[in-house]
Amino acid sequence: MMERLQKVLARAGIASRRHSEALIEEGRVRVNGTTVTTLGTKVDPEKDHIKVDGKRITVESRKVYLVLNKPMGCITSLNDPEGRPTVMNLIPEMKERIYPVGRLDYDTEGLLLLTNDGALACDLMHPGSHVEKIYRAKVKGRLSDEGRRRLEQGGLSIAGGKTAPCRVRTVRETVQNNWIEIVLHEGKKRQVRMMMKKVGHPVIRLKRVGYAFLKIGDLALGKFRHLSSDEVGLLKTWSKKGLNGRDGSPHINK
Ligand code: URA
User: Fold this and answer.
1) 191 Cβ inside 6 Å of ligand 1
2) Which CATH number fits domain 3-56: 3.30.420.240, 3.10.290.10, 2.60.40.1220, 3.30.200.20?
3) Distance 115 CA to ligand 1 centre (A)
4) Which residues carry out catalysis?
5) pLDDT tens, residue by residue, 176-204
6) Can you give the residue ranges of every domain in the chain?
7) pLDDT per residue over 20-41, tens digit each?
8) What is the DSSP string of the chain?
């Protein structure tokens, strides 16, 4: 089946759709021996010989979907120039080229999805998808009603822009700290940490406990499980909700 070259590259797990377009425009992609720089060129991934930076790419047939409980002390890139451990060290080697969907900080724990399904990953990471992400954060001090209101109403200026409205609740209070739950529908870099710092409650510990309808549950730190086919189906539906402008989702900041 003929498909657009950038879509094939994304599906092969080479890069996001946008980054794949850049690779083509930079002349780094060859099809059957000829450099292709025109976006939208159609190829047959089964038959055509496609190379990126001289390396042959293959389109995965078996799709793999994992959910990992990421521990602190590893990064969510495939490799790190500084040599830090990556989440890939926690997954046994497999022939499919899976990669993390989105990012969690080096010192953030919790639910991380990994897949070789480039189309689903692109949809989930698309800023318009508004997939729900649930975090539990141990923060310094007690969050006041005013602090909660500022977080929830959105419009906080942080690196990456203004925050969208979100939901916040306190789940546990100790003498000096609060555990709060914060539900975001966007994913700016270090967003929870920056938002909490902005309202005067720096994050001490951060875990992602939910992503779309998925919950971390009793999955042990550092362990992963495969999603069931029902979960994969549901995730595909969720990933399309914001993108299609369809309603019926629980999202609050479309
Ligand atoms: N927000 C953060 O600050 N860090 C993460 O890892 C995820 C969300």
Assistant:
1) yes
2) 3.10.290.10
3) 20
4) 105
5) 899 999 999 999 999 999 999 999 999 99
6) 3-56, 65-128+215-244, 132-211
7) 999 999 999 999 999 999 998 9
8) --EEHHHHHHHTTSS-HHHHHHHHHTT-EEETTEE---TT-EE-TTTS-EEETTEE----SS--EEEEEEPSS-BSSS--TT---BGGGGS---SS--EESS---TTEEEEEEEES-HHHHHHHHSTTT---EEEEEEEESPPPHHHHHHHHH---EETTEEPPP-EEEEEEE-SSEEEEEEEES---TTHHHHHHHHTT--EEEEEEEEETTEE-TTPPTT-EEEPPHHHHHHHHHHHHHHHHT---S--S--
